[in-house]
Amino acid sequence: MKNEKAVVVFSGGQDSTTCLFWAIKNFKEVVAVTFDYNQRHITEIECAQKITEELGIKHHILDMSLLNQLAPNALTRDDIAVEDGKEGELPSTFVPGRNLLFMSFAGVLASQIQAKHIVTGVCETDFSGYPDCRDIFVKSLNVTLNLSMDNQFVIHTPLMWLNKEETWGLADELGAFDFVREKTLTCYNGIVADGCGECPACKLRKKGLNDYLAVRKGL
Ligand SMILES: [Zn+2]
């Protein structure tokens, strides 16, 4: 894959930044794409911009504000609280069709810039309740994209079977542990690095980090 080009679906968060480092290691040329859908905090876009600038990666920001028009939810509206889903319900952060749309647009971009590979940080292990993070969805979409554009894309999901602790481990393996820890944004309240510490995203990130630090100590 070393001689080929990849598009990374990039949000500036822990997972997609780890994927960006993974792609830089595995491909000759890497391009990042961020979707702007009026996220709660514009910091997410700024954070993504900063990271790609620092790494010298070409960065496309695509306007996807129509998503907010279609599906108001906790990530885009301040008046809807961020909550974990109750048993059998989807969490309030779920945006129906989000990954379907994002991955499809990433495919259009990949086709335009002649990139064969698409990389996304979705993962099934810490299953968030998002149906469009499942492996079967990604595989199905890969087939659909190839059929729709008569192309041979390969969608990569380096985090698909990793838990949060193992994702920190991968960042470490890629020499990006400190970078990911200090420069990425996971927090629903828009605070970079360790975040607010209170929202579900911060709690999940912190747990994974602590678990990994404990493992790392023992190495
Ligand atoms: Zn937070």
From TrEMBL:
Query: Which family does the record claim for this protein?
Result: Belongs to the QueC family.
- Which BP terms from GO are recorded? tRNA queuosine(34) biosynthetic process
In the Enzyme Commission scheme, what number(s) does this protein have?
A: 6.3.4.20
Q: What is this protein called?
A: 7-cyano-7-deazaguanine synthase
Q: How is the cofactor bound?
A: Binds 1 zinc ion per subunit.
Is Kinase found in the keyword set?
no
Q: In which pathway does it act?
A: Purine metabolism; 7-cyano-7-deazaguanine biosynthesis
Tell me, what does this protein do in biology?
Answer: Catalyzes the ATP-dependent conversion of 7-carboxy-7-deazaguanine (CDG) to 7-cyano-7-deazaguanine (preQ(0)).
Instruction: State the top-level EC class.
Output: ligase
Sites where the protein binds Zn(2+): C187, C196, C199, C202
Which positions bind ATP? F10, S11, G12, G13, Q14, D15, S16, T17, T18, C19, L20
From the UniProt record, list the reaction(s) this protein catalyses: 7-carboxy-7-carbaguanine + NH4(+) + 2 ATP = 7-cyano-7-carbaguanine + 2 AMP + 2 diphosphate + 2 H(+)
Cofactors needed by this protein, per the record, are:
Zn(2+)
InterPro entries cross-referenced by the UniProt entry: QueC, Rossmann-like_a/b/a_fold
